[in-house]
Amino acid sequence: NEPSEQANASAPDLYAVIGSPIQHSKSPLIHNAFAQQTQQSLSYEAVLGDENDFKGSVDAFRARGGCGLNVTVPFKQDAFQYATEHSERALRAGAVNTLVFREDGSVLAENTDGVGIVTDIQNNHQVLISDKRVLILGAGGAVRGILEPLLSQRPAEVVIANRTVSKAEELATDFSDLGCVAGCGFEAVEGVFDLIINGTSASLAGELPPVPEAVIGAETVCYDMMYGADQTVFNAWADRLGAKKTIDGLGMLVEQAAESFFIWRGIRPETGAVLEKQRALLH
Ligand code: ATR
């Protein structure tokens, strides 16, 4: 063999996260930690996508030998379009965060966000979703992305509340074949819930979705899909009202990455130490 061929033969498989902006993405650190832990020969980088030419950005990555991509804002719908095959979950979500480039040229689309949040809630926090009364705040892409895995755990009921009521109603209709799902406005939410998930981007603006305080009881677990160095506005509000437990979305981030890694490599990494490291890095 020529030396260059040998180098190629042993080159690590190439993966990346694509988004815009992308420089603050935690995915490279997370995936490279998974690779080291599982002794997989791969490299994982961050790629700044062209907002006017997602296809061109992905084609260029594949030309460099790319095997798979994670996809983040604002490309999750573009990635859906780019793929040639979609998992049932990705079809339901209408957006994807994971692409697999197969050797035959086909492109498989997956969405691992929902598995990420369900795994974090159930495995990392030992909160079972089955038979629970679940309230979801928000009806955007983030919520659509998690509904199928959430409903597959057979909650007793899911209520989707949103500022724009028609969007909550539409989501409820789209997923009604998978369980008991209803959509409404924030003020129309009634009763106490076992699990409340904040999937709105209100926290970004330091705002609270205006749900009645009575949704929170002594046994209520609250989950904010957002996270940061400080507690989110929503989780602080829930704690003040006496919620049993509040969880932020950092575990979801690590678990969705682990699921993507599993799809690509067929090996499920341990997430505990990686999550702890990411938590420490927030401060
Ligand atoms: P994402 O991809 O993060 O879901 P999105 O599709 O723009 O982003 O959805 C944002 C969600 O947060 C929506 O449910 C939005 O409510 P509307 O559908 O009424 O726009 C919700 N949201 C954003 N800011 C909010 C605020 N200040 N209070 C309540 N809900 C808010």
Automatic annotation (TrEMBL):
<dbReference type="Pfam" id="PF01488">
    <property type="entry name" value="Shikimate_DH"/>
</dbReference>
<dbReference type="InterPro" id="IPR013708">
    <property type="entry name" value="Shikimate_DH-bd_N"/>
</dbReference>
<feature type="binding site">
    <location>
        <begin position="162"/>
        <end position="167"/>
    </location>
    <ligand>
        <name>NADP(+)</name>
    </ligand>
</feature>
<keyword id="KW-0521">NADP</keyword>
<feature type="binding site">
    <location>
        <position position="88"/>
    </location>
    <ligand>
        <name>NADP(+)</name>
    </ligand>
</feature>
<dbReference type="InterPro" id="IPR036291">
    <property type="entry name" value="NAD(P)-bd_dom_sf"/>
</dbReference>
<dbReference type="InterPro" id="IPR046346">
    <property type="entry name" value="Aminoacid_DH-like_N_sf"/>
</dbReference>
<protein>
    <recommendedName>
        <fullName>Shikimate dehydrogenase (NADP(+))</fullName>
        <ecNumber>1.1.1.25</ecNumber>
    </recommendedName>
</protein>
<feature type="binding site">
    <location>
        <position position="72"/>
    </location>
    <ligand>
        <name>shikimate</name>
    </ligand>
</feature>
<keyword id="KW-0057">Aromatic amino acid biosynthesis</keyword>
<feature type="binding site">
    <location>
        <position position="113"/>
    </location>
    <ligand>
        <name>shikimate</name>
    </ligand>
</feature>
<feature type="active site" description="Proton acceptor">
    <location>
        <position position="76"/>
    </location>
</feature>
<feature type="binding site">
    <location>
        <position position="225"/>
    </location>
    <ligand>
        <name>NADP(+)</name>
    </ligand>
</feature>
<feature type="binding site">
    <location>
        <position position="227"/>
    </location>
    <ligand>
        <name>shikimate</name>
    </ligand>
</feature>
<dbReference type="InterPro" id="IPR011342">
    <property type="entry name" value="Shikimate_DH"/>
</dbReference>
<feature type="binding site">
    <location>
        <position position="256"/>
    </location>
    <ligand>
        <name>shikimate</name>
    </ligand>
</feature>
<feature type="domain" description="SDH C-terminal">
    <location>
        <begin position="249"/>
        <end position="276"/>
    </location>
</feature>
<feature type="domain" description="Shikimate dehydrogenase substrate binding N-terminal">
    <location>
        <begin position="17"/>
        <end position="99"/>
    </location>
</feature>
<feature type="domain" description="Quinate/shikimate 5-dehydrogenase/glutamyl-tRNA reductase">
    <location>
        <begin position="129"/>
        <end position="178"/>
    </location>
</feature>
<comment type="pathway">
    <text>Metabolic intermediate biosynthesis; chorismate biosynthesis; chorismate from D-erythrose 4-phosphate and phosphoenolpyruvate: step 4/7.</text>
</comment>
<comment type="subunit">
    <text>Homodimer.</text>
</comment>
<dbReference type="Pfam" id="PF08501">
    <property type="entry name" value="Shikimate_dh_N"/>
</dbReference>
<comment type="similarity">
    <text>Belongs to the shikimate dehydrogenase family.</text>
</comment>
<keyword id="KW-0028">Amino-acid biosynthesis</keyword>
<feature type="binding site">
    <location>
        <position position="97"/>
    </location>
    <ligand>
        <name>shikimate</name>
    </ligand>
</feature>
<feature type="binding site">
    <location>
        <begin position="25"/>
        <end position="27"/>
    </location>
    <ligand>
        <name>shikimate</name>
    </ligand>
</feature>
<comment type="function">
    <text>Involved in the biosynthesis of the chorismate, which leads to the biosynthesis of aromatic amino acids. Catalyzes the reversible NADPH linked reduction of 3-dehydroshikimate (DHSA) to yield shikimate (SA).</text>
</comment>
<feature type="binding site">
    <location>
        <begin position="138"/>
        <end position="142"/>
    </location>
    <ligand>
        <name>NADP(+)</name>
    </ligand>
</feature>
<dbReference type="InterPro" id="IPR006151">
    <property type="entry name" value="Shikm_DH/Glu-tRNA_Rdtase"/>
</dbReference>
<keyword id="KW-0560">Oxidoreductase</keyword>
<feature type="binding site">
    <location>
        <position position="249"/>
    </location>
    <ligand>
        <name>NADP(+)</name>
    </ligand>
</feature>
<dbReference type="InterPro" id="IPR041121">
    <property type="entry name" value="SDH_C"/>
</dbReference>
<dbReference type="Pfam" id="PF18317">
    <property type="entry name" value="SDH_C"/>
</dbReference>
<dbReference type="InterPro" id="IPR022893">
    <property type="entry name" value="Shikimate_DH_fam"/>
</dbReference>
